[in-house]
Amino acid sequence: MTRIRRFLAGYLGLFALTAAACAFAAESLDTIIIDTGYDKQTRIAVVPFSQGPEFDGLQQMADIVGFDLARSGQFAAMEMENMLSFPTTSDQVFFRDWRVLGVEYLVIGRTRVGISGNLEVGYELFDVFNERQMISDSKTALRNQWRDVAHRISDEVFEAITGISGAFSTRILYVLAKNAGAPNASYALEVADSDGERARTLFASSEPILSASWSPDGRRVAYVSFEGGRPGIVLQDVASGAREMLPRFTGINSAPMFSPDGRQLAMVLSRDGNPEIYVMNMADRRLRRLTRHHAIDTEPSWTPDSQNLIFTSDRGGRPQIYQLELSTNLIERLTFQGDYNARARLLPDGKHLVFVHRRQGVFHIAWQDLERDDLRVLTATSLDESPSLAPNGTMLIYATQDRGRGILAVVSIDGRVKYRLPSSSGDVREPAWSPYIDVLR
Amino acid sequence: MTKQWLRSLFILMLSGLVLAGCASSGTQTEPTEPAVEPVETTDTTPPPAPPPQVSAFDANGNPYVPGTQRLLARTFYFEYDRAVIGPDDLSSLEMHATILRNNSERSIVIEGHCDERGTREYNLALGERRSDAVRSFLTSAGVSPRQIENVSYGEERPEDPGHNESAWSRNRRAVVIYR
């Protein structure tokens, strides 16, 4: 935690800011901010919360909140060293202390053990220039929900200031691979907080794991496992760890993706000799085949209304993105620029698409406005793949490579904010950003 | 023309009803006896029994190039984004077909693999196309589909973990594994 504070470079310029808070869990992802992008960031001070010796060993809650906000690129969080006072209650706040420092918003808070032994956290958000209290709230949680409380505070502060729902109380699912291809290869499906912390293994195997995705309630994940030497689709409960392998057909069983209404699971099967898109009704497990084409049809994902699928097909000779309307089976091509566009995901507004786009032989993540047909390349890295959107649609996480190592990276949807999530344990890839998860409720 | 017709007729007579029956049933060609190999002879006596053969397989069950102690190639490489068998690999695959026809108790898994470029799911499909290319070559050459299983690993199991052209060219492959 001291490293975070040391590197939180205040609002003078957050550049190449490192917060390797890996002292708590060796397998966690590091978070390295590459570019915050914005010329004018909102200047916020998150004052260290009162935090008694009963919480020794836990990271200062203000650091977790400050780093969440800094990662969004829209905020510059002030360093503790630059603060003139350390209020923890409203009556200790003197707005002029903060105004002279140019701070626009102020967060203060308190932690204590409640009568039931639970964790109790109170906090306030102030608008410094208008000398106005914007939030005053308290939260009760289990002791081991320390970080959950911090991320919830970040969400609320972010939303109160920007008007956009925060997506800090979310998780990322990803595959950690070691020695892929070698006889001693190991693969693990990991889940971590959105800041890379508290990583834990959901499933480990000596055979490949890929295409992990979340159920819309965030309670289950679906993925492809090659256990037993053949690909199969697995559904797994995140909390209990209980796994269910769907019936495996000959050939490819892959690319599972829950519909936003949770009623259906799209997937790819090649049981009839060619990869085709199917939809399984979750209630009766009945399968329905949707595509009938000798081309490769794969990578299905849903429109927000669960009425259409978007998918990758090379039916036009090269991989491009198509949309299929479930009620009519009508298919429409969505991408036309470039000769390789694949694995698309729609933004929550349903009007913008992010996908893998090849340009001059290099794979990037691109964004496309479906109405104006405008395409923008968001990433400057190479071998980029597997874009997955934060539930508020402001950022996406993807897999890329850094000096030969597989890492995860995040880019804002306008391409300006960038940070990376490498793992010291191996190659990380196939990220899937969870829906909103509220464990405190 | 006439000579070829006569030869075909001769082979058909030699192999008798078994082969005739199979030919009419189309794709379900049963593995045939080695004795039906066309032989350059007009003699009506059956060809001499083949000399006592050393094992066609090594200790791990992998086939030798027939008549040698040299292992037959089991990995076949592909061009970027393509699933077409290279002309140099056809003779090796012909030998695999012969070996599998003559050893109907043996079965194989054909793995399809890709290099890391492109999306993982698309590569899974591309890898299947590569293993399918080998499969259809072998079944067209008379190997029973029941002897063959296909698995695509996409880009998940690289032969070379590097991130350059030479690694990629080694990773775009189909591998025939004898069980």
Structure described in brief:
The complex is a heterodimer of chains A (441) and B (179). Chain A is mostly beta strands.
Key attributes of the depicted protein:
heterodimer, A: 441 residues, six-stranded antiparallel β-sheet, five-stranded mixed β-sheet, globular, disordered N terminus, B: four-stranded mixed β-sheet, 4 strands, 12% strand, elongated
Secondary-structure map with pairings?
The complex is a heterodimer of chains A (441) and B (179).
Chain A: H1 2-7, E1 17-19, E2 31-35, E3 42-46, H2 61-71, E4 75-77, H3 95-99, E5 105-113, E6 119-127, E7 132-141, H4 146-162, E8 171-178, E9 186-193, E10 200-205, E11 209-214, E12 220-225, E13 232-237, E14 243-245, E15 253-258, E16 264-269, E17 276-281, E18 287-289, E19 297-302, E20 308-313, E21 320-325, E22 331-333, E23 341-346, E24 352-359, E25 362-369, E26 374-377, E27 385-389, E28 395-402, E29 405-412, E30 418-421, E31 427-433
Parallel strand pairs in A: 3-4, 3-5
Antiparallel strand pairs in A: 1-2, 2-30, 5-6, 6-7, 8-9, 8-31, 9-10, 11-12, 12-13, 13-14, 15-16, 16-17, 17-18, 19-20, 20-21, 21-22, 23-24, 24-25, 25-26, 27-28, 28-29, 29-30
Chain B: H1 2-24, E1 75-77, H2 90-102, E2 108-113, H3 120-140, E3 148-154, H4 165-171, E4 173-178
Parallel strand pairs in B: 2-3
Antiparallel strand pairs in B: 1-4, 2-4
Helix pairs in contact in B: 2-3
Beta content of chain A: 35-45%
> What is the gyration radius of chain A calculated from CA atoms?
23 Å
Distance between the termini of chain A: 27 Å
Distance between termini of chain B?
42 Å
**Portion of residues within helices of chain B:** 25-40%
Structural class of chain B: alpha+beta
As a whole number of angstroms, the C-alpha radius of gyration of chain B is 19 Å
Largest interface (CB within 8 Å) is between: A-B, 38 and 26 residues
Multimerization status: heterodimer
